[in-house]
Design goal:
mainly alpha; single chain; 6 helices; 0% strand
Length: 161
């Protein structure tokens, strides 16, 4: 039984990845032209994943379902084949922290007075780059037509008025 009523950031990302697995399994079957028992096993796996995914989403409160949908539109996920650990976990964490700091400073000048609204947000090169490098969102619950990175500057401007 699934009893989650809301999801934290890690849980949201995990549920989004679970949903992505449905598409991946469809593609595996089509591209690799899998037939017979193996095709049946993949389809059964897809059915089981779909049931769990739907139960997870349906169990959430409506506002949390909406937040999950927004997060799925703002986040990018990349599948990386990692056959050998190249770096220590501590080194990776430190590198991510430094990248987050660089991004925050870069955004200070670029995002503070950003005029983009609505569909223009989708075409923002900085937003695309930040998403590509998995820079954490400032606002995971912003509307689809708002930039999840500009929110910090808008909030600071509202406080100064």
């Amino acid at each position: 039984m699934i009893t989650l009523k809301y999801l934290n950031k890690e849980q949201k990302n995990t549920v989004i990845m679970l949903g992505m697995m449905l598409d991946v399994l469809d593609k595996v079957i089509a591209v690799l032209k899998i037939d017979g028992n193996e095709r049946g096993r993949l389809r059964a796996s897809r059915t089981n994943i779909k049931v769990v995914f739907e139960r997870l989403v349906q169990g959430l409160e409506h506002k949390h379902q909406q937040a999950l949908l927004r997060a799925s539109k703002h986040n990018r996920f990349t599948v990386v084949a990692d056959t050998e650990r190249l770096y220590e976990e501590e080194y990776i964490d430190e590198a991510h922290e430094k990248m987050d700091t660089i991004a925050a400073y870069a955004m200070g000048s670029a995002c503070k007075n950003c005029p983009k609204k609505g569909d223009d947000v989708e075409g923002c090169e900085l937003r695309e780059a930040l998403l590509a490098y998995n820079i954490p969102l400032w606002d995971e619950e912003c509307e689809h037509s708002e930039c999840p990175y500009c929110w910090l500057w808008r909030e600071q401007d509202d406080k100064s008025k």
